[in-house]
Design a protein that fits this description.
two-stranded antiparallel sheet
Length: 555
């Protein structure tokens, strides 16, 4: 593509050029337009700008990499990475049964640079960054049109989100590794064939500078739906970046701004399977998985793996709906509505008491509430659920439906409240932090909550609340690395008698300094960007490793 070099990866035929392929056809002599001609064409045809702009956001949920084929069941954009990251952690697992495409995450074999899982997780954010760069270059930077400036600002913010979707996983946390190499930055004028890794500090300095400027450039222009970006989203991204870099007072202030005008979901609202609707009042930002988009992909969706209720999904059909580690589950008080986000050891939850699943071949055969756990459909689309299976994520189209059209939460007000609490606690304002934490949990999750009841430090209590509240949404590994915490899955090395529900092969703990926690770069990137020096060292964990490690939460 002659228009604008945007991508650090060559990655076979995977480079996306959807935003300018049609423009290239406008110039029959050279096959490409100059940047100036592109800008003139876009200004003359505003619908082209809008279509390209929408495409940047629609891309976030699309199967896109074509590696190694075009129909992988684990290729569905940014949500695939979120699920992968939680499956690398301590609190969430699928089955070790031969049907789990994400088993590479739980066993840490995904550090192999030739595997599809790390390839997808690397390519998707960089493709998004490329689309953003391309869009920004296709518009005049000095335009006085507030809508154009707003759309450029949104592209810049989305680009920052993509960088932050990569940075925490290629290096240790900022506190210990600020000057260590992280990921390449795709800035103007860079040589994409020789683009060394920027340091952790450089990546976050870039992100914070960009987002700060974006707040002004947005210009007060509103957004038409929550899959786009406004000042609340930008402040939320800033809050995450400040939290990652240890700027705790700034993190708390930015999170407070992001949360303005939003209220958490009530106890009643989360006492049934939910977390699937972009329009929910507690969502600040999310991915819009609209029906026409998802009909093209069927089981190639997040719903296929994370949701217990789909009639067309790998999880319900293969005993791979993610479960919670009983180490964490057992610590959730009985008075907390979130206890019902998972089945207990007897496959009971009050949260699905009024739900019914009917057999697709004979609707008269059905199960309600706890009966659903053992219910099996005649088409094999649902088999029995294991204890501790999550029912946090409901199905927008209804129990047993084959339309996997759940939206995905990228930012909820509950996360911002927890960032406020952590930022205040770690910037010398523990009393205020505790007040914010207790007000949130007592009002919206557990009326009997006390921050002191567990005996944890306030910092560890906030992490416990993050682990429960944000379970399955992709936060565990970034939290563990920035906090310097070990991955604690078990409290005993004896898999026969320790009572753990973690599959035996994945019953291990990981030291927070083990270099194997850092992702490796895909072989294709190493071949095409000679500036990359890959992560090395560490050891892949094996069953029984480090059973005496503790994380301050599940102790």
């Amino acid at each position: 593509m002659k228009l604008y070099k945007i991508f650090t990866l060559v990655l076979g035929t995977g480079l996306l050029t959807v935003s300018c392929n049609d423009l290239n056809e406008q110039d029959p002599e050279s096959g490409a337009l100059t940047p100036e001609q592109v800008q003139e064409t876009n200004l003359a045809i505003p619908s082209r700008i809008q279509a390209t702009f929408d495409g940047m956001f629609n891309f976030m949920a699309k199967p896109s990499t074509g590696y190694p084929t075009s129909s992988r069941a684990d290729d569905f954009g940014f949500v695939m990475a979120a699920i992968s990251l939680d499956l690398e952690g301590a609190d969430m697992f699928g089955g070790d049964n031969g049907y789990n495409w994400f088993s590479t995450c739980s066993e840490y074999s995904n550090r192999n640079p030739n595997y599809a899982n790390p390839f997808i997780r690397y390519k998707v954010p960089y493709t998004e960054i490329g689309l953003c760069n391309d869009f920004i270059a296709s518009l005049p930077a000095d335009s006085e049109d507030p809508k154009i400036q707003n759309q450029i600002a949104q592209a810049r913010a989305l680009r920052c989100f993509a960088y932050m979707a990569l940075a925490p996983y290629f290096q240790f946390g900022y506190a210990t590794a600020a000057d260590e190499p992280c990921i390449p930055l795709l800035t103007d004028g860079v040589d994409f064939t020789n683009n060394p890794r920027a340091s952790v500090k450089e990546v976050y300095e870039y992100v914070i500078t960009e987002l700060t400027e974006v707040l002004t450039q947005l210009g007060g222009v509103g957004r038409s739906a929550k899959n786009y970006i406004d000042e609340h989203v930008v402040n939320g991204l800033l809050a995450r970046a400040y939290l990652a870099t240890g700027k705790y007072a700034e993190a708390a202030a930015a999170a407070a701004k992001a949360a303005e005008g939003y209220t958490p979901a009530s106890i009643a609202e989360v006492s049934v399977p939910s977390f699937y609707n972009l329009k929910d009042h507690n969502w600040i930002w999310g991915i819009n998985v609209f029906d026409d988009l998802i009909r093209n992909y069927g089981y190639r969706t997040s719903v296929s793996w994370i949701c217990a209720f789909t009639g067309d999904g790998y999880g319900p059909a293969t005993d791979n709906v993610p479960v919670i580690n009983n180490l964490l589950y057992d610590l959730i008080p009985e008075t907390d509505v979130r206890k019902g986000w998972w089945l207990d050891s007897n496959c009971h939850s009050p949260n699905w008491a009024n739900l019914t699943w009917s057999d697709p071949a004979d609707p008269s055969i059905k199960a309600t509430g706890d009966e659903i756990a053992a219910f099996e459909t005649s088409d094999g689309g649902k088999i029995a659920f294991a204890p501790y299976t999550n029912i946090k994520f409901g199905l927008k189209s209804g129990v047993g439906n084959s339309l996997n059209n759940n939206d995905w939460p990228l930012m909820r007000v509950e996360e911002m409240i927890l960032i406020q609490a952590e930022g205040l606690a770690k910037s010398g304002q523990e009393s205020q932090a505790k007040s914010i934490l207790e007000n949130f949990v007592k009002t919206y999750r557990d009326p009997e909550y006390s921050a002191d009841a567990s005996g944890r430090t306030l910092a560890d209590e906030i992490w416990f609340q993050r682990r429960v509240e944000l379970w399955g949404e992709g936060f565990f590994m970034s939290d563990a690395k920035r906090l310097g915490k070990p991955i604690v899955r078990i409290h005993s090395a004896d898999s026969k008698n320790n009572g753990s529900n973690v599959p035996a092969a994945w019953q291990f703990n990981i030291d927070p300094k083990n270099a194997y926690l850092n992702m490796r770069f895909p072989t294709t990137e190493m071949n095409n960007n000679r500036g990359i020096v890959d992560n090395q060292g560490g050891e892949q964990p094996v069953a029984g490793d480090l059973p005496n490690l503790r994380d301050g939460v599940t102790d």
